[in-house]
Here is the input.
Amino acid sequence: MIGFLIALISGVLMSVQGVFNTQVTKSSAIWSASAFVQFTALLVCLGAWLCTERGSLLEVFSVQPKYMLLGGAIGAFITYTVIRSMDMLGPAKAVMLIVVAQLAVAYVIELFGWFGVEKQPWEWRKAIGMAVAVIGIVIFKWK
Here is the structure.
């Protein structure tokens, strides 16, 4: 149950962050706004680390395979693409497309067991759920 609640909070925070970041780009440039977003995230993470873990910051470099360390770089492009899509489509349409894309890719990652994720079997109900989500976007966009 706690995981469900955390996921809902994550969705709320991602939507609000996207709107905030899009507004920041209106008085600056997209890459400077993205850099500011990532820098403030670094400060918050360092502050949380100081208050909680206090383990070695260098432990992250023990991860295998090393390409897993690219999450932060991917995060920069996530910030950029969220800002651009919200600016071009509006928050609701952008978030719907983002969430469906996340769901589709996450399911493919599970199906094939990529990136160290435990491989999951194909399930029709999940495919139908994905189709319902896509139909929901079509209905939402329909005028």
